[in-house]
Design goal:
The protein is of the alpha/beta class. Helix content is 49%, strand content 14%. A hairpin with a 5-residue loop joins strand 7 and strand 8.
Length: 361
Amino acid sequence: MSAPTPTRDQIRQAPKVLLHDHLDGGLRPQTIVELAAEIGHELPAGDAGSLARWFTESADSGSLVRYLETFDHTVAVMQNGPAIARVARECVEDLAADGVVYAEIRYAPEQHVEGGMSLDEVVAAVQEGFDAGMSASGGRIVVRQLLTAMRHQARSMEIAELAIAWRDRGVAGFDIAGAEAGFPPTRHLDAFEYMQRENAHFTIHAGEAFGLPSIWEALQWCGADRLGHGVRIIDNITVADDGSVELGRLASYVRDKRIPLEMCPRSNIQTGAAESIAEHPIGLLTELRFRVTVNTDNRLMSGTSMTDEMVGLVEAFDYSLEDLRWFTINAMKSAFLPFDERLAIIDEVVKPGYAALVAAR
């Protein structure tokens, strides 16, 4: 007998772990309206509802470049300490309300200095907001920062050093992001080698809009702990007419080494990396037992949440609560937290949370 299909309410209640979410991609529309009014920034829509629709429609273009353009407005209103702290606090509150128990939230400090803040002050403002959000949640969620360098810029070493300076004060790791084509991760090799020398963790956006070479460089040249998206690893997997599957050398390596894939289904559809949830490579990769994790990427642009992402997967692939638990434990195992802290969240929060939902069916 197959397991019952989980309801949306059960999925919302289930403890969830989020590894790939951009701070500047998850603002509340009303907050953008209010912060824009404070600084005189012109928006494409004047009220929260219309603005929310503009973001999702603009992001739903099938182009990663156009998708990234929507960030001009969110970044514009995050150029002073109080605004950044507010956005960070609300991010934690929204995730906690959605049942997220652990999250790593990334952003590029270099994009928030136009108002005169230093990189260090930007990180401090984000941490202030995260601390306030976690305190308000009453301990229901743990949130850490990932500091991102933009791959088309030349500040990656500076950002990597910033991540190390803050690693005992709320920063869990380092990342690079931005358009992949023409900006390979090896351009930032010195920053990744520095992180390795410092025994620190980092993930790399790779295999989203660009193919296998981006993934190969991220892993074999740069030493990434995780792959941001990594959806194009599917290009190294062949499914024959009889249903048999053959993994190429790189796909085999990724699966054998249990390299986490930070998959963001709805975002991938918007950027053209997949046609639909049902056709998203996450289905086959899960079946083949890659280290798949489920993420939101940009909650505002994709009009999504962790609950929405999981509901979409349940509808497309008929996943059970046990499957969602597997995704969640995968993510917690892959988090940039010390081992004992990861284990405590798995054993004391994730497993009991899912067990209670199963028992209540």
